[in-house]
């Protein structure tokens, strides 16, 4: 449970619209009801496809049949949904509560939600305005625009195009990504305080980066000469008439009365306002109606925000991910659903969960935001299903054809088997240990098809993957696809459509894979714990039966040192578990510095010392006249100490520094 919770904290601001945990539906005591605005924008002519007609009446009826039940079953307090078509608002609906205790309904026009990483689209729009103005070159070294230096990686600089396609090569950062009730530093100071490690060559690997997005916002601030918040207000919000939107933290007094509360569960208590240190990456608060205005602009050739040619450039796929899957555009990412190309961006804070899709060819857009993750990540399932069903009902020509499997399916599936590492990860600190525990594994199912436990169906069941093109697999009963990149006859990378524009999976090196490290680590923990316990247990046994320890001199010293260091290692491992579990608590980040440093110092002494002592102990035991059990245990002890030391080195438990 702690591992999944930690990952949820890590995913804050991620924007993975459909990659949340599968929904396990449970009965809720709270059953939200829709709050409908009487005033609506003019309705566009109907668009017919699938099972429904894209009219206000049909969409409202469909939403009324889905949203209240979904929110109630998922224990989500409230939501807003807006649909636009042909430059007009088709419908905008509030469901449930903005404030449960006060029974304040969600108003789609005025209630503010936190769209999380969907905020990035406003940052990218600001960047493209400066590209259009000639102040930013998409392919220039971004160091020319900032007042600090990003060192080159293998001689290569970072460009704005790489930042906008999440291929700048930064590792993930977690510490102080989100805070509560604390004064925030300026954007420039925040960026300079900690520059994440570069773990990929620029342009080579999609790896989602909040830091890089915040850097883009700072570049807008620098080249325009206007603070980022002011810039967005003047050049985006005011142009669109977005009165209920802001990036400012804390909220301006005029907007506070309109802010929805955030909840963990709709049946729980209201939580505090989340403040985002890397503000351009996810700090916005906005109403559904104002998000509709933003979608309309990007469906209207960019006007009044961008010129048509700039908008076309922004919407063009950049082909940076695995071939055959969704790609990044400039800031937007693709979501192909039933042959329809959407440009999208999802967003998650701890409490708010959102998604935005626009369909440029159809001139249609849809936005949803919820103020609670709900039970077992229900919000992720609710928004993912909403988007898929919207396309199926209103845009698709009819039922999807049954996928036809290639004759190469079983042979190609075998090439996928193995352990894989997510490109979006922490690598330079102790937090990397979570990726050992969460390593993606691919096997083969009973029918010879890929089995991927990390990519399950909505209900949590395994998907049935049908190879429909060489190294491209289609979910037999859904929209999802996976695809692999092959080099010299070997699969070197894969991803799936939900995340492929900004995350991929590469083979885990043999020396860092959990296939042997996790069993080895568990073996080591058991051996070291039993060794540590043998000291007090042996003392009590000798005291009970009046016997003495039958060791003298060097053997006695080795006995005591080994067990003393075993207790030190056990204590350090328990400490690390406590620290990792605390990482999900953003309030605790500042208080973790001292424990982390202490564990790093004691761990370095303990892990290395125990391995050295275990080797010395083995030499003494085998040199002396010990029995077979003593000799066997000395070997097991050395192996256990080795496995623990190896994991500590690989995953930075032996290091100095409090960043993560």
Provide structural commentary:
The chain has 660 residues and is of the alpha+beta class. 37% of the residues lie in helices and 17% in strands. Residues 1-48 have low confidence and may be disordered.
Produce a short descriptive summary.
With 660 residues, the protein is of the alpha+beta class.
In percent terms, what proportion of residues is strand?
15-25%
Number of helices: 16
Report the mean per-residue pLDDT as an integer: 89
Rg estimate, integer Å: 27 Å
In which range does the helix fraction lie? 25-40%
How far do the termini sit from each other? 21 Å
Q: Structural class, judged by helices and strands?
A: alpha+beta
Q: Ranges with pLDDT <50 over ≥5 residues?
A: 1-48
Quaternary structure classification: single chain
- Shape type: globular
Short key terms for the protein model shown above:
8-stranded antiparallel sheet; 16 helices; 37% helix; globular; disordered N terminus
Secondary-structure topology with pairs:
Layout: H1 2-10, E1 34-36, E2 48-49, E3 52-53, H2 56-74, E4 78-85, E5 88-99, E6 104-105, E7 112-113, H3 120-132, H4 160-164, E8 178-179, H5 187-193, H6 210-224, H7 228-240, E9 245-246, E10 262-263, E11 270-271, E12 275-276, E13 285-287, H8 288-299, H9 308-315, E14 333-337, E15 340-348, E16 353-359, E17 364-370, H10 378-394, H11 409-416, E18 418-422, H12 433-437, E19 440-444, E20 450-451, E21 465-469, E22 472-475, E23 481-487, E24 490-496, E25 505-507, H13 514-545, H14 553-582, H15 593-623, H16 628-650
Antiparallel strand pairs: 1-5, 2-3, 4-5, 4-17, 5-6, 7-13, 8-12, 9-13, 10-11, 14-15, 15-16, 16-17, 18-19, 18-25, 19-20, 21-22, 22-23, 23-24, 24-25
């Amino acid at each position: 449970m702690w591992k999944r919770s930690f990952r949820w904290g890590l995913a804050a601001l991620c924007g993975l619209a459909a990659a949340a945990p599968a929904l396990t539906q449970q009965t809720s005591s709270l059953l939200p009801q829709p709050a409908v605005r009487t005033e609506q924008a003019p309705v566009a002519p109907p668009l017919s496809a699938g099972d429904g007609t894209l009219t206000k009446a049909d969409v409202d009826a469909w939403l009324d049949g889905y949203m209240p039940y979904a929110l109630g079953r998922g224990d989500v307090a409230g939501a807003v949904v807006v649909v636009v078509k042909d430059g007009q608002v088709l419908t905008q609906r509030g469901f449930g509560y903005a404030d449960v205790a006060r029974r304040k309904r969600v108003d789609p026009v005025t209630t503010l939600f936190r769209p999380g990483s969907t905020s990035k689209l406003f940052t990218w729009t600001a960047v493209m305005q400066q590209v259009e103005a000639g102040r930013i070159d998409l392919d220039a070294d971004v160091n020319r625009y900032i007042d600090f230096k990003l060192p080159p990686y293998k001689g290569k600089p970072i460009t704005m195009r790489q930042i906008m396609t999440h291929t700048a090569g930064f590792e993930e950062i977690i510490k102080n990504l989100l805070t509560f009730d604390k004064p925030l530093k300026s954007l420039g100071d925040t960026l300079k305080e900690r520059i994440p490690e570069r773990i990929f060559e620029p342009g080579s690997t999609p790896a989602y980066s909040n830091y890089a997005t915040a850097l883009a916002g700072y570049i807008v601030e620098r080249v325009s000469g206007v603070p980022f918040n002011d810039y967005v207000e003047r050049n985006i919000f005011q142009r669109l008439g977005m009165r209920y939107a802001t990036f400012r933290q804390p909220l301006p007094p005029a907007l506070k009365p309109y802010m929805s509360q955030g909840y963990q569960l709709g049946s729980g208590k209201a939580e505090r306002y989340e403040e985002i240190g890397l503000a351009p990456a996810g700090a916005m608060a906005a109403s559904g109606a104002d998000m509709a205005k933003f979608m309309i602009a990007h469906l209207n050739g960019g006007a009044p925000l961008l010129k048509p040619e700039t908008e076309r450039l922004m919407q063009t796929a950049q082909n940076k991910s695995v071939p055959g899957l969704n790609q990044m555009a400039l800031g937007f990412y693709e979501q192909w659903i039933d042959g329809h190309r959407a440009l999208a961006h999802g967003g998650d804070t701890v409490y708010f969960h959102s998604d935005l899709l626009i369909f440029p060819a159809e001139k249609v857009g849809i936005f949803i935001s919820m103020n609670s993750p709900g039970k077992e990540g229900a919000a992720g399932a609710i928004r993912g299903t909403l988007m898929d069903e919207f396309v199926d009902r209103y845009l698709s020509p009819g039922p999807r054809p049954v996928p036809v499997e290639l004759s190469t399916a079983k042979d190609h599936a075998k090439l996928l088997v193995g352990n894989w590492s997510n490109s979006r990860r922490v690598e330079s600190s102790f937090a990397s240990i979570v990726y050992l525990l969460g390593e993606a594994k691919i096997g083969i199912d009973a029918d010879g098809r890929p089995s991927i436990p990390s990519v399950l169906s909505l209900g949590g069941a395994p998907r049935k993957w049908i190879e429909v093109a060489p190294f491209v697999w289609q979910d037999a009963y859904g929209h999802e696809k996976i695809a692999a990149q092959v080099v010299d006859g070997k699969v070197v990378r894969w991803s799936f459509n939900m995340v492929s524009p900004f995350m991929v999976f590469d083979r885990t090196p043999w020396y860092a894979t959990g296939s042997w490290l996790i069993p080895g680590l568990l073996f080591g923990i058991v051996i070291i714990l039993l060794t540590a316990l043998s000291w007090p247990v042996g003392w009590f046994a000798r005291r009970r039966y009046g016997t003495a320890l039958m060791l003298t001199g060097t053997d006695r010293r080795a006995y005591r040192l080994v067990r003393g260091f075993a207790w030190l290692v056990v204590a350090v491992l328990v400490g690390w578990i406590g620290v990792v579990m605390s990482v999900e608590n953003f309030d605790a980040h500042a208080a973790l510095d001292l424990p982390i440093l202490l564990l790093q110092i004691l761990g370095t002494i303990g892990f290395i010392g125990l391995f050295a002592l275990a080797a010395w102990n083995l030499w003494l035991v085998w040199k002396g006249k010990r029995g077979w059990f003593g000799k066997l245990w000395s070997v097991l002890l050395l192996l256990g100490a080795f496995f623990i030391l190896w994991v500590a080195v690989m995953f930075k438990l032996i290091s100095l520094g409090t960043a993560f």
